[in-house]
Amino acid sequence: MNVLPEWMANLEDEDLVFIKKFVLASGSLKEIAAHYGVTYPTVRLRLDKIIDKVLSVENQSKDPYINVIRRLAVNEKIDLDTAKTLIAEYKKTKGKNLEEREDS
Fold first, then answer.
1. Structure confidence at residue 60 (pLDDT)
2. Which residue has the higher pLDDT, 101 or 35?
3. Confidence of residue 23 (pLDDT cuts 50, 70, 90)
4. What pTM, to 2 d.p., does this model score?
5. Phi/psi zone of residue 42: left (φ > 0), alpha (ψ -120 to 50 degrees), beta?
6. Topology classification of domain 1-59
7. Domain ranges within the chain, ordered by starting residue
8. Which of 87, 74, 70, 24 is nearest to 48 (CA)?
9. Which residue did the predictor score with more confidence, 5 or 13?
10. Alpha carbon distance 70, 31 (integer Å)
11. What stretches of the chain show up as alpha helix (H) in DSSP?
């Protein structure tokens, strides 16, 4: 395979190492927790963050502003509730702008 899937290209090296270990452990979070010397909930949280990163690529909007907000949330630069609020308000404003253009 010469082309790296977009969802993989968006992950950090440590995420890819985690995924490899996860696959080699047959998906056993308990085994991964033992390997890393952390608790099961810690491993689950790490996996959830990787899932969010993959989904953010899958759900990418054509709107660059929304993509930036989602990326900030996935990389924990802003919290998820703030990201949702920003996107919702942006969509409302964008919708109003479209209505105003149609009225003109």
1. 66
2. 35
3. very high
4. 0.58
5. alpha
6. Arc Repressor Mutant, subunit A (1.10.10)
7. 1-59, 61-104
8. 74
9. 13
10. 31
11. 6-9, 13-24, 29-36, 40-58, 64-74, 80-103
